[in-house]
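User: Need the bound-state model for protoporphyrin IX containing FE:
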Amino acid sequence: MNSDELAMIKKTWEIPVATPTDSGAAILTAFFNRFPSALEKFPFRDVPLEELPANARFRAHAGRIIRVFDESIRVLGQEGDQEKLDEIWTKVAVNHIPRRISKESYNQLRGVILETLTAVCNLDDSQQETWTKLVDHVYSIIFKSINEEGDAI
Ligand code: HEM
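Assistant: Bound-state model below.
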């Protein structure tokens, strides 16, 4: 990623991160509306979709997803950023392994994240490409880790 791309990522990220729980909730609401079976993995699986935005556990998870991205975007451009990204996203992968989340499910969430960012930040085509590059990169760390754990599903 060049310095213009880096600056664009950091600048556009200011919008969703200003209201982290609401931004995460927007992503997760869209995710569960489109892929309702993903809900089965969560402790709030029995809560009706329309009540999720008010559910504390749902909001906690929404905020956590944003925090992982925030931590990643903060380190971008610093010395040792790649190692730090490896560390952050390997931890995400390892923590999720007992939950048996499929790559397909991760990819479904990936699409929703990119769509939500595009809408919230009003990204143009080239900005979308750069964001996609970043999300693909962190996802490659998740999938590498899942493969190495020998627990791919
Ligand atoms: C960008 C991808 C993702 C990120 C950054 C992320 C982040 C997190 C974090 C930080 C936690 C809390 C720490 C932990 O317990 O490990 C968590 C928990 C969890 N994640 Fe994810 N996650 C991602 C994708 C997914 C996907 C695709 C699913 C399944 C459809 C999923 C299901 C869960 C579940 C079931 C929990 C436990 C929730 C709870 O106990 O309240 N995650 N995630």
